[in-house]
Description:
It comes from Takifugu bimaculatus. The chain is built from 25 helices and 18 strands.
Amino acid sequence: MSTTATMGEMANSAVEFYPKGTRSGSRGGRADGGQAGGDFQVTVTELRELMELRGADALQKIQDSYGDTEGLCQRLLSSPTDGLSGDPADLEQRCQRFGKNFIPPKKPKTFLELVWEALQDVTLIILEAAAIISLGLSFYQPPDKDSEVCGHVSGGEDESEGDTGWIEGAAILLSVVCVVLVTAFNDWSKEKQFRGLQSRIEQEQKFTVVRKGNVIQIPVADMVVGDLAQVKYGDLLPTDGILVQGNDLKLDESSLTGESDHVRKSVDKDPMLLSGTHVMEGSGRMLVTAVGVNSQTGIIFTLLGAGDLEEDVKEKKGKQPDGAVENNQNKAKKQDGGVAMEMQPLKSAEGGEVEDREKKKTNIPKKEKSVLQGKLTKLAVQIGKAGLVMSAITVIILYFVKFFIIGVTVLVVAVPEGLPLAVTISLAYSVKKMMKDNNLVRHLDACETMGNATAICSDKTGTLTTNRMTVVQSYIDVEGGLAKQVGNKTECGLLGFVLDLHQDYTPVREQIPEERLYKVYTFNSVRKSMSTVIKLPDGSFRLYSKGASEIMLKKCSYIQDAHGEARTFRPRDRDEMVKQVIEPMACEGLRTICIAYRDLPSNPEPEWDNEAEIVADLTCITVVGIEDPVRPEVPEAIRKCQRAGITVRMVT
Length: 652
């Protein structure tokens, strides 16, 4: 999930989180929507209970407790149209009262834990055992009769060998220590770099809110309860909220409920918007009611963190009666309320122990290992086993001590102590070199894996291109124009084009704000267009529509000429326009957008649900070509990949 922080195990073991002063709130505050005073007439507990409801139950709760959404806005000292004032003192007070939009990340592993993980490698365990046995045997002197039995095997040994025999074992131990320290330090430094990178990414994540009547973008972590947030197609909601105004809003709530069907949201039926859900269609505004660990996403991860802590407690207590465990689970369910129901199916009494054991198995961290290192380790173990078997055969000839000496010798020869160190240092060196190219590698084995890559599939918008849309060509009947205004999205590119034509769209927005739009057919991948209906002063309606040119032109029956007069747009004219205007634009890599309109009578009022009849017989105004410039470094990067034998594919 694209949230304000890494979704990991929560440090807080409590099922509910209350910032200071939130268990009981002031009931005698102002209800005039003012920003001063900070006497909020609603508590964190009430908001949490409200966000656990859905549909008609949520609407009934809002109506019974607050009257309507505006009543809730007044209790939160916010405005359903202008949002918060943005006063720093007010924002700080909201953070203290309702919490910050931040979920604490999982506690990082200590250096000693990383050292212990590095010691779990099979190769290192074999070397450790060999070193200890070698050190022990270096101080052991067999009796003289051993020499007589062994004959030539021991007869040629140097007498001074016993004095220096400990060096071999010490050298093996030293190499093991070097490997462990290098591996642990690499893991520790990578973890530190990743946390710093994630912190920077969190600050760069922004969301659109309304403050003091102005639409601005702020970091997701700075959002507070009472903010008026604008949601649109493609957004991942960072907080919980209640819909204040919406246009055909549909959300994907599969991350919370598991249901893949899109859920329609509306002010009068189901206004509850939950964090971690994706906006699949439409747009709107929501009043932020829960942030951070108090949001639905935060509650889920708090419960996961509490579950891990419960496992640790069970391990320590050992023999806790089943009845006590069941009572604890029932208490947790009661505290959760609706959340526990959302997270069904819950564990049964009999299946719980099995699931706990499986969880414990999956929670054991496994040290990643490269393919080469894994094969070498397997080979070394097999050779070591063979050596032990051979030495076991010779036990009838040699004494018990000689049996161990030969086994250790075979092990040491089979597993060179420098091999793990060489592999670790070479991979660490590769990681450092790639860091200079701004390529941060977290798992060392990824270096070897990426060396085998033969194809790269890349997204287009924002990856290969700058995601800064620019209208560079336009067609308005016979006469055209050229614009250089750069925007950051398709609509911003169109607005920049309007400004370049020396026209100001601000008065139009002030005259017809978003709240006064009569009907909106939002953009989706099926329509490939967006249409908006406004009511004219004489009571009639006007439909404005824009979308993919190949879709829109089929719905156009008229076209405006250079003088603003509409003339008939026949199929033959459409085919000619496609060949002479749209195809040349497309060949230059431009995104072609057609803009059209239609006037509709007020009596009888059109049937707005019949979209096919409404968005038809349009009058084409213009076709514009929008360019998304390619990033300057992309062509050379693709050429390098091709020279290396890697195929680059664009997926868009």
